[in-house]
Design a protein that fits this description.
Number of strands: 6
CATH class: Mainly Beta
Helix content: 10-25%
CATH superfamily: Nucleic acid-binding proteins
CATH architecture: Beta Barrel
Distance between the termini: 51 Å
CATH topology: OB fold (Dihydrolipoamide Acetyltransferase, E2P)
Oligomer: single chain
Largest sheet: 5 strands, mixed, barrel
Structural class: alpha+beta
Number of helices: 2
Length: 106
């Protein structure tokens, strides 16, 4: 059996870093992924996917991600309390939104 998923999407909700009882850092992130086909109205629909981040992945994403950044997520699907989410094993930063305030300071 194989439980592996690869997604690429846009960050719509920033991760909030948390520590659990075992001192393992974790965070949840939400990404939007447009479908590659049109619906009956001729529009592209978007799927919203929740991803769980653990350890260093959670730490790095909470420090460097911004809303609108495009990321790649490799992980596995996991069911928790009748909710299905992706547990990230690797996150790749594919493109970053330009922050107009940072550019003004340069």
């Amino acid at each position: 059996m194989l439980n592996q998923i690869i997604l690429a999407g846009k960050v719509v909700k920033l991760p909030e870093l948390e520590n659990n009882d075992t001192n393992l850092k974790s965070a949840n992130i939400t990404i939007s992924i447009p479908r590659n086909f049109k619906n009956s109205d001729g529009e592209y629909e978007t799927d919203i996917v929740s991803c769980k981040l653990l350890g260093n992945i959670a730490q790095n994403c909470s420090e460097y991600l911004k809303v609108g950044d495009i990321i790649g997520v490799k992980g596995r699907i996991q069911q928790e309390d009748n909710n299905i989410r992706v547990v990230a094993e690797k996150v790749s930063f594919l493109s970053s939104t330009k922050d107009k305030y940072n550019e003004l300071e340069r």
